[in-house]
């Protein structure tokens, strides 16, 4: 049963303040509402794990990750967003041969109501919490693989955000959210069943109550506006069978500079967790360093992620991930959308097992935005 704590009422108080803000300007009222907008991302990826210390891991995998997103705008400020994912939802077994579009399932990753006004925003529903960026922005085909361990996706809760800006400090966004892991029917998947999340599975924030929270702040560093930062802290309640809350913080620095015809975009992110996976006295930390360079329609991406686990008992486990990829952007006039192609190399050492892979990724993105009277906005 979901329970509400008194301190969570502060989030509703902020929503009331938002509703008391001045009404839309005349310019905003001229736009047509309601409206619908969205995005369709289709990725087809092939991974060839051609050499591994574990021979059972050597296979070729061809799969798609397809993500449709639809946003229904009731007005300038009030909207509902739904985001689905179609991808493999079951990992390969040790006795599996090559896999071609196998074990794909469709599930709802985000479904939330959002209200925005004068720099203040409010979210309510199922969505990912603001914690870290490397799991989303680390470049290349495989740059996000380890950092995805700490992505706070598929949480149900509330979030308040406030964006403040000035000429002297730039634009900064502060977010605070309270949440729990989704274990409703939306945690399952269609076509291939990935299994519904249940209370007995335990794990951080799998509590059925709004007793986990995250806070983040991001924006440019005023003295060097090309340098951005992201700071966040998350405290997740222990689930059934766990012995500790999981507490963690993350620091990200990202930079972008154009020199001649070349864009350089390095980034670094450090994340540390105590009570990892809900286990008392267990720590884990990650460090991701990456560099993206772009010249005309070509892109080169290099990234490294180190992952260290200090378990409650036993020896430390050090894992490493390196990837290098090159890509080409074909532009945004291909079938009314944008098309790109990347290919690259992946090396990972996990629990003492080395694995080498070569992969290719073809990505297509289509966006639309229409008023429901049939006129394009």
Describe what you observe in this structure.
It is a single chain. The chain is mainly beta and 377 residues long. Helix content is 5%, strand content 58%. The chain has helices at 9-19, 26-29, 134-137; strands spanning 35-52, 59-73, 78-88, 99-100, 104-117, 120-127, 155-166, 170-181, 212-221, 224-236, 246-255, 257-259, 262-274, 283-295, 298-310, 317-334, 337-350, 353-371. The chain has a 16-stranded antiparallel barrel with strand order 1-2-3-5-6-7-8-9-10-11-13-14-15-16-17-18. Strand 5 and strand 6 form a beta hairpin.
Tell me the number of helical segments per DSSP (H or I, 4 or more residues long).
Answer: 3
The secondary-structure class comes to mainly beta
Count of β-strands: 18
Helical proportion, percent range: under 10%
| Shape call | globular
Please sum up the structure shown.
5% of the residues lie in helices and 58% in strands.
